[in-house]
Amino acid sequence: IKEVQDLDYQALELGFGQQDKKLKSKNASAMDQGIEDAGPSKQTVLETKRYNSISILMKSIPPPSKLRSIFLNFDESEINIGLLATLNSSLPTFEEVEAIKNSDPAKRDNPDKFLLEISNLPQVELRTKCWLFKIHFEEDYNSIVTPLEEISKSFE
Q1: What is the DSSP string of 20-63?
Q2: Where does residue 110 rank: exposed (0-12), middle (13-18), buried (19+ CB within 10 A)?
Q3: DSSP character for 105?
Q4: Could you tell me the sign of the dihedral formed by the alpha carbons of 131, 133, 134, 136, in that order?
Q5: Exposed, middle or buried, 88 (CB in 10 Å: 0-12/13-18/19+)?
Q6: So what's the pLDDT on residue 101?
Q7: What's the pLDDT tens digit per position in 49-97?
Q8: Cα 30 from chain centre
């Protein structure tokens, strides 16, 4: 490996220093717009990948307070099948709920709070699975009935 001897370290530092200033100014403008920064005061018990996916999911579904009434009333006008399926696959595990419950409530980050609120819905996993079954039932039924009727006619 060939060593680089004519590297201008001051120019390199200056270039990275300017980029760092840009990042700081973006964070400052985000704070001015009221966008929350997790910062060191917030903590999560979730893995990074899981944390990111829950954060994305939270932006596309109604808030947990409204989600509660949607689930209790099976209100299909408020949530589509794609979001329901995504929510079903993103439900918190028992271990996650226990870890969140054992964390400091004042320091919980939004995805942790969201998962805890979702876990407090009565029988949330069973409700989502039943709701998905209900939505898919007619389509699945029709896809089976037609071939069965043809087979039945062939025996007559």
Answers
A1: HHHHHHHHHHHHHTT----TTT-B--S-HHHHHHHHHHHHHS--
A2: middle
A3: G
A4: positive
A5: middle
A6: 92
A7: 999 999 999 998 888 888 888 888 888 888 888 888 999 999 999 999 9
A8: 22
